[in-house]
From TrEMBL:
Lineage of the species this protein comes from: Eukaryota, Metazoa, Chordata, Craniata, Vertebrata
Pfam families: CBF (PF03914), NOC3p (PF07540)
Family: Belongs to the CBF/MAK21 family.
A Gene Ontology biological process term: DNA replication initiation
Localization per Swiss-Prot or TrEMBL: Nucleus, Nucleolus
Keyword Protease: no
Protein name as annotated: Nucleolar complex protein 3 homolog
GO molecular function annotations of the record: chromatin binding
Keyword Nucleus in record: yes
InterPro entries referenced in this protein's UniProt entry, alphabetically: ARM-type_fold, CCAAT-binding_factor, Noc3_N, Nucleolar_cplx-assoc_3
Gene this protein is translated from: NOC3L
Domain Nucleolar complex-associated protein 3 N-terminal: 214-308
Coiled-coil intervals, chain numbering: 302-329, 450-493
Entry-linked SUPFAM superfamilies: ARM repeat
Entry keyword set: Coiled coil, Nucleus
Amino acid sequence: MRARKNTKRVPSFRKLLRTSQIKLDNKLKNKQYKQKSAAKKYRKEQKKLREAVRDAISRKPFPLEECKKKQVGKSRKWEEKEEEDALPLDMMDEDDLKLMEDLAQKASFLTRDLSSNEPVHIKKRKHESVIEKYEKVPRRLQTEPEKELIHLLPIKDKSGIIPQAVEKPVLNDAHEEEEDTEDMEEAEDVNEEPLPVLSPEEMAAQRRQKLQERKMHIAALASAILSEPDSNIKKLKELRAMLMEQDPNVAVIVRKLVMVSLMEIFKDIAPSYKIRPLTEAEKATKVKKETQKLREFEEGLVSQYKFYLENLEQAIKDWKQRKLKKSNVISLKAYKGLAEVAVKCLCELLVALPHFNFHNNIIVLIVPLMNDPSKMISELCVEAVKKLFKQDKLGYASLGVVKVISGLVRGRNYDVRPEVLKVFLHLRIKEVELQKDSEDIAPKKKFMTYKEKRKNLSRMQRKWRKAEEKLERELLEAEASESKEKKLKLHTETLNIVFVTYFRILKKAQKSPLLPAVLEGLAKFAHLINVEFFDDLLIVLHSLIASGDLSYRESLHCILSAFHILSGQGDVLNIDPMKFYTHLYKTLFSLHAGGTNEDIGIVLQCLDVMFAKRRKQISQQRALAFLKRLSILALHVLPNSSVGILATNRVFMQTFPRMDLLLDNESQGSGVYLPELDEPEHCNAQNTALWELHLLQRHYHPTVQKFASHLIAGAPAEGSGALPLDLSQRSATELFETYCMKEMTFNPPVASVTPRRKDTFLQMDSFVDEELNKQLQQHISETVAHTPLDFAKHLKESSLA
């Protein structure tokens, strides 16, 4: 029978290497485990020994060989009792005395505990515990202090070397006590010397000198660290130690200076990547000197940065708790200044180092301070978060901040300041920016044309080049799609958290002061909401408007949100927004030239979304009614609002046909215009005229005059009545912001008028009439007698009468 063939494959060399490496690793692990277990066992034994010694010492037995001497002050009764109990030696037999003497010569008799019943020569057992061993060791208590010995030269005789020593002489205690009392008296005399009293000028000069020394020390350390961060990273610890300045005269200023200096240093020397901790395998491997130096620098930088952030956090906590420390170096009033500087440093680091370590910890510190009662601190934190949102292109930092804000709003039961939610308006989440960023990440690669290939390459080279170009195109597409998908994923998660926060407030806190911020945020991000929520959201917005609890500004935000929804993905929905048109038509007369003038910007945005982007769904009657009411409103607002409204009227006249009906005095149809009616479809706007434009032609603002004249001419695009390009190419919102008068300046500036030269003229020639001149000269030449005024004269006359 043929032998069976061995089907087992011979392992390859690579596999043998791999398995041998695994075996070596296992052996190393086993060896380490054995070493650990041996060390653990040794530690346990040592612990038992220490416990046994501690227990033995606590019991304090008294051996026979070193019992304490009897005290002199014992009572006579105890002495008499002992004398009665003790047997005199003359009453003992000679055999008993001999036995006692023999036993006294044995150490077992001397060291034995007479209270125990065990025999003297007991054998040791193998299972005897460590504690029992220590229990049987004779106790030696030092009743008297050990005497110091002076070792002398040894003596040598026949028996061997005999060491020699003499006791050190001890001075009398009385003499020592006298010396101690003398030293104490001398120290008291030194302490009793009065300190020199400084004048206020000398104290101020001394303080300035100390402060200058601290400043120079801070500057020297900072310049050394910035010049060579790798080698001088340990000086960060020395500089950070100055945050604990204990001199009460300069403590506050020095701590503030050190906080700001460290913040600037970390901004300069921090790398542009996040430093991760090294693994055990990486620490065990040998590396180059440069790599080891870099590792030490990174480790020191991260640890000092962490301690610095902890110091800033502690400064803020001390101010919040308002508790004096034991050192009492800084007063309670100074805590607020230190906390403000600490918050400024944290805000700078939040914006400057969003990629570095502990950024999430800074976010957790800053976000609750946005709701702080202190206006200065809350504004600092809000501005820092806004800057972070504006410069964050990837979205990691924005996502972290949004998560913390959402948790803060929910944790405080929606009792936060509106500014906390208004920072969401500065998020960089737009489709245009996403497309732009993806194009920047994946630039187009220029490939060779067919003619260039035929001219420069052979047939085989063209074949290889074709395959390479195909592969490169696929790689570029994959890279661009991956980066775009990553960014879209981050932005989607961020927006989901934002909308969850908004919808919670709409559902649970409709009367909260956060509602305007929620409506404003919905108006901005409404085009990014999922279509599934459109119906429910429009119903909620309409119910809020119909309730009448909203102010005109909040209702304007509701309208803007609704039309943003309908102008985007909401085109597919079959919803009639007539009720929103009616509400805006009704709200227009609530605006005026006072505090509500700034809300014209929201109205212009609403009109742009409602009419310019939905021109096919607008009837002629509705457009005429809004055109007439806006012309009336232009008479009651500031110039910048009038310019924006007239620019919107220009869009109306150019977009909708037959708007020039209102430029004719003849009525078109039956009925009378009803300006007080709040229904734009039924107010008969076609039967009126835009007489307000004639008044606006005489307006004091030149731009308003130009727009009024342009509309009276029928808003032509060309010709003599056309607007200049700088006005015609701008939107209504841009014109409203351009001619704003917030800075109390007139735009365009008023031309300066050159003052006329004052003509010199004589006093006689001031009046042409001669008779008037004579009377004037006569009155000037008369001497006037100045009599004292009596204000109580009429009172005296009335009392006499």
